[in-house]
Amino acid sequence: MNPSYSVFQTPQVSQAAFARAVAFATKAHGEDGDDESVSRLLRRVDLLSDAGIVDLRVMSAAVLCDVVATTAAGQAQIMAMFGPGVSLLVATLADYKEPTTTKGHRQRLMRTASAPRGAKLVMLADVIDRMHTLQHAPPPDFTVARIRACIGECQGIVACCAGLSPYLDLQAAKIARGAEINDR
Description:
This protein is an all-alpha fold and 184 residues long. It contains 8 helices and no strands. It has helices at 15-31, 35-50, 56-70, 75-94, 102-113, 117-136, 144-161, 166-177.
């Protein structure tokens, strides 16, 4: 675990619980052979850390949300291991799926607008990371049109989460300024 995480301490979730969340997520993704998922969750944690987020419920949810969506681990397991605060955020984030239609995107924006603050912070860190990846290392099967559409959807999430963190707002703005995708 990155030593910079040792600065986190809140009464709601201990540093040890956060370390368990990182270990649990790493193991769950490792069993599925998905190193990119582990890298993504750690990039999210880094963004939240850089933003000064010290609530370990939020940090734990940031590493656990993909576990429920992409591995065999279930929400009940998250509740039993990490408690109701983390479990609620993870459940909210697990429901935050890639939309496949315009209607799905609108529904995701509505869910984002009504999500708890902690979930919105994780969503914001996630879309900042996603936009950066789409700009610098998009999946090879993504067309320019698909990349632009994904970045547009991300910018909708950014708009729903604006004002939660000046640092994350600044990072989103920097990424958005570079969002011009050239034809490949």
